[in-house]
Amino acid sequence: MSWSIVKQSMRAARRVVLLAFTGASLIVGTLVVERLVFQHLYAAAAQKVVRAEELTGQILLLDERLTMSANMAAGTGEERWITRYEANISPMDEAINAATELAPSDVAARFDAETRVANDLLVELERQSFALVREGTLSQARALLDGQAYAEQKSILAAGTARFTASLVTAMEANLASVRMHAIVLVGLLTIGGFGLLWFLLTRSLTRSEAAFVQAERHIHDLAMHDALTDLANRRGFTGALDTAVAEARTSGRTLTLLTLDLDRFKPINDLYGHGAGDAVLREVAARLTRLVPAGGTAARLGGDEFAVLLTQTAIEDVSGVSRRIADALHEPIRSATLPNPVQIGVSIGIASHPSDAADATTLLTHADLALYRAKNEGRGSIREFEPGMVLETRERGAIEIEVGRAIADGQIVPHFQPLVDLRTQQVIGFEVLARWPHPERGMIGPDVFIPIAQRAGLITDLTLSILRQACQVAARWSVPLPIALNIAPEQLQDRWLPEKLLGVLAEQGFPAGRLEIEITENALVADFETARRVIASLKNQGVRIALDDFGSGCSSLSHLSQLPIDKIKIDRSFVKSITTHPQSATIVSAIIGLSRSLSMTTIAEGIEEPALVDHLLTLGCDLGQGFLFSRPLCAQDTGILVQNLADVCGEPDGRATDNDRGLRLYA
Asked: Which positions, given as ranges, span the membrane (predicted)?
């Protein structure tokens, strides 16, 4: 969608630029047309003005010449003046005709009616005087020219000529001014028209673009408020709806109930069948929630496999019924074309209400999450309502998280060592490294408390490296170089740099890689098998041994065993403890031992607490054992003393011996 908006923006920008260029081109074109068309008109009009002024001067000059020639002829009687007179008659007629043609019709008509008649009468009188001159009667010729009739016509001619020439020049100047005015008007009209058209086109284009942007903005808002996969409200949209609902409830006094949901057994679906199958499950969960949420309620996907339901019109006593129906519905098998078989998930639900549990939306969501956290800890499928004590628990948990981070950094979490024993010879052939936290105020804190905290805080690798560093320092001081086994968390096996980090600690401490054994769980192989395989191979290539921990309790496949360079398999304690009481457990343990032997792997039984288990395990063919029967986890000092005591009793073994020989007899 964002790319579509960018393209719309570019198209709108191009349209605006194109229209701007079009408008500018129109205006420039108008100016060019004005120059091309009206330049000639300007020149013609200006030429007429000049011509009118020339003709005016020419008429006046010729009139003076005619008058002078007539008077000279009458005064001297010489024929040359008559000849000269006659020579100026034709130019005078041409000038008058040219001026008449140039002048406006009304001015020309008036000139013909007055001035031309007077001119013709003068010419007639002057030619009469020439006849008298030729007869030799010069006095009569002069008298004719000096007479009143001649003077009257002369006055009429002069006045008419002056009036005509003035009108002619005025008319030509008015014509020039008219041309200029027309040019200005035309340019103005074209410019205004061009700007008007440009404004119209720009307005229409921008209106269309605005409509497209409004629609795109509305779509973006919808996308921003809804989850694209499930079409439910997303966290942002749900938070806004929750704020609004709480504000309205505060005004109306209505009760609101918020349910936060976390799916159980969802991650294995993604791991086993891929994210396409996981998406199909999430869509089906959304569809079921939509059907189950009562009128006025809102369902949302907050992210991942976390959902929420806001109940606005449900009585508080009905909330438990709605919650149970949701839990039951989500526990039913889900079928999809992307799933090879129906899958069954579940849901844990946390409940908080307004105003009893929280006065504002943020606190309401927080308290519902606290209830959900309690539900998850109590087991899959649990439903828990918020209790005030949960806040104190959260604060304590937060304080512990801070303490855990500080304890890891300061090395306060230390390694303890539990012996690994050869069941046939009763020799200690190594130790499993277990983390313990001797808290100065809380006493000894077990890994079940601080390891989940370290995992949530992203500190599990720091904790692992700290424990390994301390264990190497302790084991390096033992009188016998026994190996140590260290557990790593499942998520660490997805870190492709894990081998470098572990081997870096070994190199730093000068601890041989052959004395280190890494224990991994089955579930660690499921999330990303290829990355896990590469990590295991890298460690194995450097001499580190690999053990598969809690075998039988996870979801690995036999193909994993065939593809991985595993040295040992540790049988889960749940099977070991019940082999003497449950035939099925004995059968499972026997099958695991047989499988291990066929793959040339050593088997270790965990959780041995009774002597009878040792005999039974030996009968089944188990190699090694570990449990309270042999020893509880020991601190570094006690472990050193144990190793020294056993060495003193048994003597130091040959360094070339195998694991089973390179040990110390626990019971001498």
From this structure: 181-202
Region of 621 (left: φ > 0; alpha: ψ -120 to 50; beta: rest) is left
Nearest to 627 by CA among 400, 412, 434, 439: 434
Distance spanning both ends of the chain, measured CA to CA: 77
Nearest to 311 by CA among 232, 257, 241: 257
What are the structure tokens assigned to 629, written together? 């029967």
- What share of the chain in percent tops pLDDT 70? 83
631 within 8 A of 419, measured Cβ to Cβ: yes
- In angstroms, the CA 386 to CA 357 distance is 7
Write out 399-426 in H/E/C secondary structure. HHHHHHHHHHHHCCCEEEEEEEEECCCC
Q: Are 161 and 59 in contact (CB under 8 A)?
A: yes
CB atoms within 10 A of CB 198: 18
Burial 616-629 (b: 16+ CB within 10 A, else e): bbeebebbbbbbeb
The CA distance from 509 to 40, in Å, is: 102
Helix 361-378 × helix 389-410 angle, to 10°: 70
d(CA 562, CA 552): 16
376 vs 304: CA distance, rounded Å = 16
Query: Are the C-beta atoms of residues 643 and 478 closer than 8 Å to each other?
Result: yes
- Give the span between the Cα atoms of 151 and 432, in whole angstroms: 151
Q: Residue 177 has which token pair?
A: 């001014």
Tokens at residue 570, please?
């540790």
The phi, psi pair for 438, rounded to 5°, reads: -75, 85
Tell how strand 306-311 and strand 256-264 pair up: antiparallel
Distance of CA 531 to the CA centre of its chain: 30
Q: Place 654 in a pLDDT band, splitting at 50, 70 and 90.
A: very low
Strands 624-625 and 602-605: parallel
Q: Can you say whether the dihedral through the CA atoms of 33, 35, 38, 40 is positive or negative?
A: negative
Q: In the numeric block, which tokens belong to residue 123?
A: 């010419």
Interatomic CA distance for residues 346 and 544, integer angstroms: 39
Distance CA 446, CA 375 (A): 22
Q: State the chain's mean pLDDT as an integer.
A: 83
Q: What is the pLDDT of residue 34?
A: 62
The dihedrals phi and psi of 61, each to the nearest 5 degrees, come to -65, -45
How far is CA 128 from each of CA 62, 82, 525, rounded to the nearest angstrom? 19, 11, 142
Residue 572 DSSP class: P
Q: Is 577 left (phi over 0), alpha (psi -120 to 50) or beta?
A: alpha
Cα 229 to Cα 463: distance, rounded to the nearest angstrom:
37
E strands, 461-555, are 484-487, 516-521, 545-551
244 vs 231: CA distance, rounded Å? 20
Whether a cis peptide bond, with omega within 30° of 0, leads into 355 is: yes
Chain segment 478-508, per-residue pLDDT in tens: 999 999 999 999 889 888 899 999 999 999 9
Q: Are 608 and 576 in contact (CB under 8 A)?
A: yes
Cβ burial, residue 653 (10 Å; 0-12/13-18/19+): middle
Contact 609, 628 (CB under 8 A): yes
**CA–CA distance, 26 with 30 (Å, rounded to integer):** 6
Largest CA distance in the chain: 186
Q: pLDDT tens digit string along 261-301? A: 999 888 778 777 788 889 999 999 999 999 999 888 899 99
Residue 659: partners with Cβ closer than 8 Å, 6 or more residues away = 429, 430, 483, 602
Query: Is 508:476 a contact under the CB 8 Å cutoff?
Result: no
Contact 624, 423 (CB under 8 A): yes
